[in-house]
Fold these 4 entries.
Entry 1:
Amino acid sequence: MSQAVEVQADALVPRHGDPSYGVEHYDLDLTWKHLGNHLSGRAVLDLVVERPTRRLVLDLHALTVGKLSVQGARLAQWNHRQGRLVLKLGSELAAGSRVRVTVAYAGVPRPVPGPDGEAGWEELEDGVIVASQPHGAPSWFPCNDRPSDKATYRIGLTVASGYTVVANGRLVEKRAASSRTTWVHVQDQPMATYLATAQIGRYLSRPLNGASVPVTIVHPARLTAAVATGFARQVEMLEVFTRFFGAYPFDSYTVVVTDDDLEIPLESQGLSTFGANYARTDWGAQRLIAHELSHQWFGNSLTLAHWRDIWLHEGFACYAEWLWSEESGGPSAAEQARRHWTRLHAQPQDLVLADPGPTELFDDRIYTRGALVLQALRLTVGDAAFFDLLRAWVAEHRYGSITTADFTAAAAAHSGLDLGDLFRRWLHQPKLPALPPAR
Ligand SMILES: [Zn+2]
């Protein structure tokens, strides 16, 4: 009889994550074979115990564990069932204990099913994308899959020469041996598991000049012209957001455009991925190019501690779209807000923004209403105080974990106003409030 593991870190993404420890560093050495989409290698996790425990639970989906070893604790036994790799220890570990877990594993990675669909490692026509939000990280490496556990990474990935690998952080090594090439990326800033990614394809890589950090665009040769046009304003966008939100949080920004069309673009730490269908100049594509970039501040540097606070990512990214609309000569943020308020008002008002259910995690209303909260706040505190607050929020919580309560406290502290009623109505009650008059 197998028993499901009850350990749970987040109510909206059940059966992922272990609150009893935190990972400080992931070291991955993986080999991917195009034929059969086969992944093999080993992961070394350096972790610190946060509460006394006799077991450590890792998440790993569909792949098979070959060998497992533990340093810093005695491993009594382990088992791997239903995506949970459970390490039973010979004695209780005290908080603060440091443990190294090494897992050798192999198999055919598959996206992880969840309440809002599949996520994770996904084969393309000729390559791979990893789109892990919110629960897909265990599709390619063993991890403590809760968003509040942020760690540094070294991601080594060996693929057939001819493919390009893009992963999070700096490319520190590219080593060719016979028909294979190893790409090593290092992510020095703490990163949540769902933001870890590897993008593999037959790509060209081209720098975009003029930004305050290196910006690179990676794409198949056939899309050169479309990408040059579609992403022509990427650098300008980055500079505009730097002005609104403060310094870009990471060492570089990379845009990957896949040869395949993709249903939606996605953000990862330090990079974003777009399908070929988004290399366009119309607002429908441009707003998403802005949206994904803004997640570097809102989602990647500042990351929710619990998935119920998803509006702290998506509401802010949606508001960034409106800011870019105004900056790029489109409707003003205020005009965008009025239009979206009207649209939202016509929809069912049965969603609590600060606590959506597991199937509403990426409901369109989270994005729009989340952005409207910011417009309501801006109208209440005034433009200068609003943008000061945004920059202070980003600076004070850089690379950290955040909650709704952190944000409302920061807003009250920076504005000196009692915003309790405003946030209660916008965040904690389902009925859509009217936008307040301008201050
Ligand atoms: Zn988003």
Entry 2:
Amino acid sequence: MDIQTTMLTSLRKLAEQHTIETLGDRSDYLGASEIGYCPRKVILEKIHPGEHDLATLLRFQRGHMAEDIIARLFTAAGYSNFNRQVEIVLSGDVPLKAHIDFVFTSQVRKMKSILEIKSTSRIPDGPYSSWESQLYIQMGALARQHPDYSIKGAVLTLDLAHGEVAFFNGYEPQKTIFKGLMERAGTIWSDYQAILRNENIDPKTEVSPLCGFCDHISTCPRFETEDVPQMAGAVQVLQELQLRDKNLQGEIKKLKKQLLAVVEQKGPIKSGGCFLRKATRSRKHLDMERLEAFLAESGTGIDEYQNDRTFSFLEIRKAKAT
Ligand code: SF4
């Protein structure tokens, strides 16, 4: 068995174990973290849970690691007034559970503070709406369970690869938002139950850039036709970023050229807390002319040593007006 297969099998086993220990059977209830996502995706994942690939499983492990780091960090800082993986079952028509990463309690101030940890590969400019929905459900659930406490909420985001963090703080329970989210949960749950009864229901779809990570995109009605106007925002943002990147690369190149010209004339200098000097490196390169001549003499050619390797990328072309 190769290392990738061993990793995949073991990580799947670990993920299953973790789900059983912390979340139980997710087909029996709706989790607070699911309410903010596309309803169709949530429902279909309960009915046909797909097998996660290596990248997704590693991301899950990264999430657990981030939580463990934060727990160790608070313990080292002398905090002991917190509980991890707090489960709250919300009463009502919909079987709804909230699993909260950290709940800090101050008995003196009669306050409970939720801290939700998110591990990402890039720190976003602001919290995602699905994170906020989850937080509002968690705060509402905690407020119901502890009506004599004031409740606060925050999201701590970690980018473990680049060592960056962002703290989105200052959330408090909002009755109207909580009510709206409970209604949304009710619709998702009743559509889910109807599909289980084989009723012909088309659950609501919400197109977003996260559709690329959805296992049910191939059957999604929103992607049936070629035109998906809901993705226009993401395409526009990408094009603007690419343009900014191009301009930025031009600026960088220009400044580098100017500074190189200075050190070429003057020699090494110190400026802005940095040393600047002209550096020269050599890189080996193939002398193709000589190589081709040599191969031709041996009765062969360069083509015989060239293989095709496929790779994928996003191609964006201007669409013809219809
Ligand atoms: S592809 Fe997008 S809209 Fe369709 S089900 Fe998946 S997440 Fe929802």
Entry 3:
Amino acid sequence: MPDNQTDNHFDLIIIGGGLAGASLACALKHASLKIAVVEAYPLNTDSQPSYDDRTVALSYGSRCIFDSMGLWPLLEPYAEAIETIHISDRGHFGVTRLTKQQEEVEALGYVLENRNIGQQLYADLETAEDISLFCPAVLSTLKQDAKRVSVEVSVGAQAQTLTASLLVAADGNNSKVMKLMAIGSSQKDYRQVALITNITPGKKHDNVAYERFTDTGPLAFLPMKENRCSVVWTLTAQQAEYLYALDETDFLQQLQQRFGYRLGQFKKVGVRQLYPLFLQSATQMVHGRVAILGNAAHSVHPVAGQGFNLALRDIALLSELIVDNSRAGKDIGAPSLLQNYASLREDDIKRVYRFTDALVTTFSNNIKAVAHLRSLSLLLVDVLPDLKHRLAIQSMGLNTGSGHYMTRLNRGMPL
Ligand SMILES: Cc1cc2nc3c(=O)[nH]c(=O)nc-3n(C[C@H](O)[C@H](O)[C@H](O)COP(=O)(O)OP(=O)(O)OC[C@H]3O[C@@H](n4cnc5c(N)ncnc54)[C@H](O)[C@@H]3O)c2cc1C
């Protein structure tokens, strides 16, 4: 039997079944492609790094992508709408509000727990006959030639060889695929740590997301189901460790002092977790028959909740190119297809780098002149409707760049 027809030959191998890898597999569920998803950690366990206690603020554009994929009805019961975004600078006068009414949308975005997204993505994948899940399984070797990619994966104590026309690296910011192919990345260390937790406030959150810029860094409160708020508190490593070690009462007191009483007296706090923050960018998005997406390609500061939203736009484009080539009977791993993917994604990714990096660097210091300037810029944003609309468009994930190329999934159409 020729190699291409053995059980271990696939059209596509996805390394990493986290938020990005599993979403790509779901997008391609009806594409009549044989797909392997290789994921290192068992699902539904506390050790799974992609589906942990964090939340994701999904932009309105990402909701459109999930809707076009037919997944939104599964996710919606877990999604809390963001109807207003309130941006302020602690101790200064500038404040701006973005509202769903001004932008004439149902919501500016939605907050979901990573764990719930993971459960729903895998529930959807379970119904797909052409998708094989190798889990827990890790990638050990990778080779490619002009016709195919070949990988060895360890499934328990057993090694298996899988081959495919195309391999997608969705294995996060410590990507083994990139290491095996000697693809480098540039990194900017923000020397900041995100302390993540959930709290129950005394007052109703009324679907308002708060982004407060403080002298140590941004502090975000995102509305969640059951009137909880997801807190992303950016701090120096020393401050984060100190706050992490406090008991619940002392921690809530410190948080209250930092945020104020707009949401009433904080009552309860959930598990606290720390994440070091950096900007990481792969030096190339494709290599031969390999494409890179999600955190492996770009990790950004969570200040404006852009990371997974950016990954979903990678997925919307790559899945469209794959499906179009497959329907035309063409090679889905052709280097020309992948070059097209890399060049069409470039503008959007660079725009998000600039947007998040500017927010972090402008709003994370206490130099007086900078503080006045940012107060002024917040005021300007509030009074200039066009500027405000542009900020809202970026936050809603509708400014996708790509030479204004809007994918079908972005436009609400099926693949
Ligand atoms: C504090 C914080 C808050 C955030 N908030 C937001 C937000 O509000 N909105 C937003 O859009 N984004 C947000 N993000 C970003 C978001 O979490 C990431 O964009 C998202 O997790 C990227 O998913 P991924 O699948 O690319 O990578 P990961 O989540 O890192 O998943 C990689 C997967 O690959 C698997 N894997 C790794 N190596 C191997 C291997 N060798 N073999 C097999 N499998 C492997 C891992 O087990 C994992 O499941 C936030 C990030 C942080 C740190």
Entry 4:
Amino acid sequence: MLRGQMVCTGVVRARYTCGIVEGFDVAIVGGGPAGACCAAFCARAGLRTLVLERERFPREKVCGDCINPAAEPVFERLQIAERLRTLPHGKLQRIDFVAIGGRTVSVELPEGAEIAVKRSLFDHLLVTRAAELGAIVSEETTVTAITPPAGSSQHWRITAGRVNHAARILVAADGRNSTVARLLGLLPKFQHERIGLQAHVPLPTDFGERVVLQFRREGYSGQAPIGNAELNLCLVSNAAGIKSLRAWSEKEFKLSREQTWRTITPLRRTALRPAQNRLFLVGDAARVVEPFTGEGIFYALRSGEIAAASIATLVNGADALATAQTYAAAHEQLYRGRLWVNRLARTAVLSPRITSALLRTSLLPRSLLRVLTAKIVS
Ligand SMILES: Cc1cc2nc3c(=O)[nH]c(=O)nc-3n(C[C@H](O)[C@H](O)[C@H](O)COP(=O)(O)OP(=O)(O)OC[C@H]3O[C@@H](n4cnc5c(N)ncnc54)[C@H](O)[C@@H]3O)c2cc1C
């Protein structure tokens, strides 16, 4: 057990002194959807599982809060589908694509398919489930250094403050700016990239059960109701345009200048090799997708789940390099056939004027948008 810990509903709020905490099969850095899901499946497979998470849950996060229905089978396997439905949420019946100038093309979503839930609630549910299944979740624990194992019988050493954790297998689930990848020299230098801003604001009257993807000259805005009369509002632009996009949103949604915004960058990054010898990368740490498609959480959950299956075989004696290859192949398969939608979405959002012109002139027919939407929410 951890020294000086405070246990709170199965989750550890770390109050460390110092020392080495040993004996874990797997240490997972990051308790977002990828890390919590991976932890839940590892713990259920009987592995001694540790999650190290910088924040204290529940916490918000820059996200559109939309849960892609493709994730439903994962919720069933985690046995949280019912609990998820009882959380405050917004129902989404259609997507409105709004061109610069206002022309709107609507595409219906399958009945009851997509919902939007605040990440504070969603991520807390996942991490609670991981703890229920036996994972030790250490919150307010920021990983600052990693020492790779010196030999095949050695452990990874993961340092958080003055405490060193030891584990046979390491999972990077710490998001697009992955500390693990950076500390191990795997993270490429970022190019100048777009910035995402997000806020929860009062839901405008008669907003309806819809997602709005609205093109602006500076970039785009995503809007979705999330229950309890709140709206998730996201803005995406480059450094030059984000101020003016924010000014537009303050006027459009009658926000005060004091409105709190969460921020993140980059939105695009080179994909990393998802596995090496006893190291697994899951979720955004391995590969990010264009936020516009609203698929990131699905990929995070599924990659966490398939990594857990590989980790269990590894702990049970499988060859480390063969297991890394198996996971890398399954990871590739997860994205195969869907990345063209991601590329198309990125092209569309990087050229809002052209996309708007296509929407205005019906050169981007509703049937094509329907096909793309069906591909994303299938
Ligand atoms: C503007 C925007 C809108 C989006 N909208 C949607 C959407 O509507 N639907 C959708 O499915 N996806 C959306 N996404 C993508 C989605 O947010 C991500 O794909 C998803 O959060 C990835 O989950 P993850 O678990 O991999 O990483 P994260 O959710 O980023 O979790 C990583 C965790 O690691 C922790 N961490 C980081 N560093 C450390 C450290 N050093 N030590 C310990 N812990 C650490 C963090 O605190 C965090 O809790 C959007 C993204 C953006 C930017």
